[in-house]
Amino acid sequence: MKKRANNGNKKKQLYTDLLLLAVMLILLFIVYRNRTGLFLGRDYTFSTAAAAVYGQDGRKYVIDEGKSVINILDKDGVLEKRLKGGRADRFYYAQSVCETVRDQKSVLYISDIAYIETEEGTVEQNRVMEYSGGKYREVYNSGEEQIFEIKAVDGVLHILKQDDYGITLLKLTQDGTATLRSIYCGDALCAASADLSTGCIAIATKRGALRLAHGTSDTWETVRPDAEHLMPQGVCAENGWIYFSDFYGGRICRLKETQTEKIETVYQEEDLKLSVLGLSPDTDSLLGCDLVSFYEITGVQSGAAKSTYFTQVRYSGFYMTVLLWCALAAALIMLLWLLRFLPSAIVKLTYHESALRMAAVVLAVLSVSCFIAWSLISEQHKKEDLWDVSDMKLVTDLIVNNLDVDLLAGITSQSDYAGSSYLQLREKLDLLMAETLEEGKDYYYVFYQVRDGKLCYLLNYYDTALCTEPFGRMDDTYYMDVYNTRRSFALKSTDADGQWLYVLTPVENEAGECIAILEIGTDLSYRTVERRAETFNIILSVFCSSAVMVMLIVEGLFLLGFYERKRTFQDPSKADITQFVPLRTIILLSYAAATLQDSFITVLSSKLYQGQLLLPDSVAAGLPLSANLLMMAVFAAVGGHMMEKAGSKKTMIAGVVIESTGFLICALTDSYFGILAGNIFMGIGLGLINVTCNAIAAMAEGTEMVAQAFADIMAGSLSGLAIGAGLAALLYPIGGNRLAYTVAACFMVPLFALCKKSRDVRSDEASRQEEKPRIRFTAFFFNRRVLGFLALILLPFMASISYREYFFPMFATENGFPEVRIGQLYMLCGLLVIYIGPYLSNYVIKRFGTFGSIMIASIAMGLNMLLFVLVPNLVTATLGMFMLSAITSFAYTCQYTFFEELPDSEQYGNGKSMGVYSVFENLGQTIGPVVYGALLLLGYRKGVALFCFMMLLFTAVYFAATKADHIKPAIPGGTHGQS
Questions:
Q1: CA angle in degrees (0–180, nearest 5) for 140-142-144
Q2: For 647-701, where are the alpha helices, taking DSSP H only?
Q3: DSSP per residue over 901-968, as a string?
């Protein structure tokens, strides 16, 4: 009764843990989908607002945080939602927004600028993205041609864009893109807008002019300014009116399209600089941004306009933020409960002096290496900034000394920009900047003047400065300090357009008067991103190289310990046969060499394949890897017979020679068929080595020695995978795939020496073991326990591991993830498997039994794929890699143990049953890339979803068919017998 009660309690605890795991995953998924709300308080403060427009039902859309976030405010001005961009699969740097209703659903169109990495370098893309139902899709791409405005009328999108030296109005319909108007203008434009109700197009030029093209006319009417200077920006045309902001007058103006001689001032404020305007549907309110926050100006039609400046707004999701943190805390508590075995495992580990010593050495080496690398990189970046400032000062001196100050002082009106003096001045300046560009210095220049007590733009390197445009940035005090003190300043600043490093220098005439201020600077935005990536790459490379060296040293110590124990045997004839063959090191070297290609083999095959086999590209890309694994499966069976006839030594040496041949073929050839043939030879060699080591392990005397031998093989293979991935990440950037294959061939030299010195073992040495009743192959193979496990559990599970070797490299490289980073990720995952696996597998087997363990492993693998199906992006794919590593860290041991302990395996013979196991194990890995390649023809998401469904279905079928045969209480303390 007591035993039955204990079994019931254990089963209840099992179901409780599974329920907690499911709830934890759901909570983490909810937190992940709403992660942008985790760090928002009760109020939201705007920082670098670039544009603000009205939407439906009084909503407002404010582009903020360097154009990477779109804040959605309700009609009461409360922040209700935030859209996070900055990625190519959604909006990147948002420029404008418009909202419409289609099929009774809100649809948001976002005009953005994306910077896409291609083989030719970084390419600018002006796009329009559609956002509906939480999903983004690209609906238009104009390449490098600027998009000035997007509007939606009755659900139909209209786009106003630059077109060579003109401007084009497009309409997007279900049948495609239709051109409504295309007009030549010949001016450099800073803003443009189209009135869809009248057909009028208004443009603001960079030389300070406002021009209109009425109706279907192809001629431009220039609006006569009502003041000495007119600096139009933020043009908005709607319902027969033209609204624009005047930078020089600090005002917002409007005029009728039919009465261009009369400009009305709607609102005026000193130093008001609103570069983008948004008009409400009733045309009675305006929104405008000053690159910090935004204004709302109401009462436009009544003539009694009032403005409100929003520095911050109330965040309606504050309580949702609290709930998200509570959900995250609850998920972490559940995780700690599910991992409650870890503290005791760590405490037990502290009693092992060797383990503590090893952990201390590893942590010390990695920590010191990463800290030194980070310190050196930080110091180098500071020096680079100082060098840039020094170079900028030299460039400013060069420009000032060669500058014709009279020509510069003569630029006072719009007509001066079309004269020969301006062209002569720019010609000299551009020549000097071209020389700096040839030296690798990407600098720009800007000249400012102080007029009427105001700081104004005069001209710049990109020829985009407005005609004596008033300067409106918050740091203009530094410019006035330069003007008043005649001293130079070096500054860093951040605005809506990025980060900048620049030097300010006064420009004086012969009388010693400051007539201008020169700014020489460079854009730090890309440099900051590149530096972060560089720092991360270097630290990760140092970590990987240090980890590889430490692991090689550790494995070397294991090998020395093996030979030391072998030397001290008193009576070698009584020692176990596994103590004469360094199984761990042999497997390690063979797997490390084979793993060197994992991070790039799929991508390399895809690049080299030119349709030679008339197969789809996705299938052909995985064919070399599949051929490799197929040969491993075939020669897992052939190797057993070779060992019986020729012995273990000759079989392993043959495997080493054949595997080396495969590496050399791949290194010497650079063709698809060369890679395919090389992988066939690699698979044959690795299959012979692998099955020989497994057979020797199965010949050990006693359960303890068998378990120890298989543990050595597992540890060696996992260490080899991690070492190979780490070395690939270091070698591939230096010499590409040829160097990787050459180093793999070099691994075969010590492996050959180890096999040569090992004891020759034959299968007849197992005759010392106690003879047990045997069954035939048909009775062993054709029963629901064995065949069901092999076909429904082992085969799909091993095929699903191609998520790592096939699917992830293909998906990651398409999303800008380099092969080097993939190799580094493989190594980190390998370390996770090596150091977490033994403890996790021991706990899972003790807690759930071997049958429960294999069920958990298969279900977890299916849920891991389901994560990508639900959120198909690079983050979840990378997270899936770590989850896959955690799953396989205990799944291999659980599956080995479960199959070995089946009564059918014992009656058929452990050696022969493990041979069958090896065939299906390798067969699963063989068909994995082929299955993924075929399924991915449906698309990444649909293909993985179908694989996930089949995986969970097969697991459910096997559970239902064999549950009664396998469910037995766990044996306290370790392994579990099965009925």
A1: 145
A2: 648-668, 672-698
A3: HSHHHHHH-HHHHHHHHHHHHHHHHHHHHHHHHHHGGG-HHHHHHHHHHHHHHHHHHHHHHHHHHH--
232-238 and 135-141: which strand pairing? unpaired
Cβ neighbours around 30 below 10 Å, total: 15
Q: What is the C-alpha R_g of the chain? A: 35
Give the burial class of 939: count Cβ atoms within 10 A of its Cβ; 0-12 exposed, 13-18 middle, 19 or more buried.
exposed
**pLDDT at site 108:** 92
Question: Residue 965, CB half-sphere, CA atoms under 13 Å: how many?
Answer: 16
Q: Residue 8, Cα to own-chain centre: how many angstroms?
A: 46
Given this model, what pLDDT does residue 158 score?
93
- The conformation of residue 864, written as its DSSP 8-state character, comes to H
pLDDT reported for residue 692: 81
In degrees rounded to 5, what are phi and psi of residue 497?
-100, -5
**Hey, what are 862's tokens?**
């299916």
Q: What is the DSSP letter of 286?
A: E
- HEC readout, 550-598: HHHHHHHHHHHHHHHHHHCCCCHHHCCHHHHCCHHHHHHHHHHHHHCCC
Binned average pLDDT, 10 residues per bin, the chain of 979 residues:
58 74 80 72 82 90 88 88 81 89 86 75 83 88 90 89 88 84 84 91 85 88 83 88 86 90 87 82 86 87 84 79 84 80 62 60 70 76 81 85 82 74 82 79 83 76 63 65 85 70 87 86 73 72 74 78 70 63 84 82 82 75 79 74 76 88 87 88 86 76 65 74 78 82 88 84 50 68 82 86 77 73 72 65 71 84 84 81 80 76 73 72 77 75 84 87 58 36
Q: Name the one residue in this structure whose structure tokens are 């299955």.
A: 931
Read off the tokens for 774: 């045997």
| Structure-block tokens of residue 174 | 């279900």
Q: Say if CB 637 and CB 657 are below 8 A apart.
A: no
Contact 940, 864 (CB under 8 A): no
Q: What is the distance between the alpha carbons of residues 885 and 881, in angstroms, rounded to a whole number?
A: 6
Sheet holding 285-289, edge to edge: 276-279, 285-289, 294-298, 306-310
The whole-angstrom separation of Cα 804 and Cα 797 is 12
In our burial notation (b when 16+ CB lie closer than 10 A, e otherwise), range 382-400 reads eeeeeebbebbeebbeebe
Q: Give dist(CA 18, CA 859) in Å, integer.
A: 11
Number of other residues whose CB lies within 10 A of the CB of residue 612: 12
What's the confidence (pLDDT) of residue 61? 94
Tokens at residue 924, please?
């699963």
The pTM assigned to this predicted structure is: 0.57
Residue type, 469: E
Cβ atoms of residues 494 and 505 within 8 Å: no
Contacts with 855 (C-beta within 8 Å, 6 or more apart), sequence order? 848, 955, 959
Burial of 566 (0-12, 13-18, 19+ CB in 10 A): middle
Q: Which residue has the tokens 């064999």?
A: 962
Report CA-CA distances (Å) from 938 to 136, 377, 719, 814, 863: 20, 44, 36, 16, 20
> d(Cα 409, Cα 700) in Å, to the nearest integer?
94
What residue type is assigned to position 144 of the chain? E
Q: Phi/psi of residue 61, each to 5°? A: -115, 120
Contact between 763 and 911 under an 8 Å Cβ cutoff? The reply is yes
The residues, any chain, with a CB within 8 Å of residue 671's CB and separated by 6 or more, are 608
Three-state secondary structure call for residue 804: helix
Say what the pLDDT of residue 640 is: 64
**What phi, psi does 873 have (nearest 5°)?**
-145, 180
Strand-pair category, 176-184 with 166-173: antiparallel
Q: Of 768, 765, 776, 763, which is closest to residue 642 (Cα–Cα)?
A: 763
In a 3-state reduction of DSSP, which class is residue 200? strand
> Is the dihedral angle over the CA atoms 849, 911, 704, 632 positive or is it negative?
negative
Residues making up the chain, counted from first to last: 979
